[in-house]
Amino acid sequence: MRASDRAYTALRDDIVQWRLQPGTLLAEVEQAERLGVSRTPLREALGRLAAEGLTTAAGGRGVVVTDISLEDIDELFELRETLEGKAAALAAQRGDAGTFRTLEADFRAAPSLISNSAPALEDYYLLVERLDSALDTAISNSYLAQAMRSLRVHLVRIRRMAADDAARLTAAAAEHAAIAEAIAIGNPGLAQAATTLHLHRSLSHIKATHTPR
Predict the structure, then answer these.
(1) Quick one: CATH architecture of 3-65?
(2) Alpha-carbon separation of residue 85 from 58, 125, 129, 192, 193 (angstroms)
(3) N vs C: which end of the chain shows fewer Cβ within 10 Å?
């Protein structure tokens, strides 16, 4: 892996997982030393992060990690509803029914993960990633899949903003199961409606629990 790719991946993961908090100054010398790269690949990595909206220039101070406001969250979910609703409808038309039947069953069993330890909870998030990956494959549209992958970076940041809420995650698992079921039975309208319902409930929860930083 190229040095710039290593630096980009490490910084992106640190930002997404909140190890680098919003407003953190990413000083070139310090970050290059921390990541074991020279300043040229670091600058390339910072440029990629800026293009994704994860960092921004802060006047003469340098580059800082961007914040996420409630306004940002509203805008992200507007785009998410458009992209993911269309993707679910396409998946219902083009996807493999067996794949989504399996995902439905796994989401029905997910409460056992949610109510357990932190490692088990990570297994739940891996299940969500499996659904995302299945959707990307099923839609057979590389442009739409790429747009959704770019958006998910910000969605993971949002998910990490607050402590995991078992009640909400349990409800979300049932909503994901409904999406997978609608896709499995080949009903585009139902798949899109189930996706819209899930997103509206997720947004309401985030806005009700989010404390501005």
Answers:
(1) Orthogonal Bundle (1.10)
(2) 36, 20, 17, 5, 7
(3) N
Average confidence score pLDDT of the chain = 90
Tell me the whole-structure pTM to 2 decimals: 0.82
pLDDT in tens, 109-146: 998 888 766 667 788 889 999 999 999 999 999 999 99
118-139 and 166-184 are packed helices; what angle lies between their axes, rounded to 10 degrees?
30
For residues 58 and 56, give the distance between their C-alpha atoms in angstroms, rounded to a whole number: 6
Q: Are 210 and 161 in contact (CB under 8 A)?
A: yes
**Pairwise CA distance, residues 8 & 3, whole Å:** 9
CATH of domain 70-209: 1.20.120.530
Q: Are 11 and 31 in contact (CB under 8 A)?
A: yes
Spell out the domain ranges in the chain.
Answer: 3-65, 70-209
Residue with tokens 């997982």: 17
Q: Concatenate the DSSP letters of all residues of 102-134 into one string.
A: HHHHHHHTTHHHHTS-HHHHHHHHHHHHHHHHH
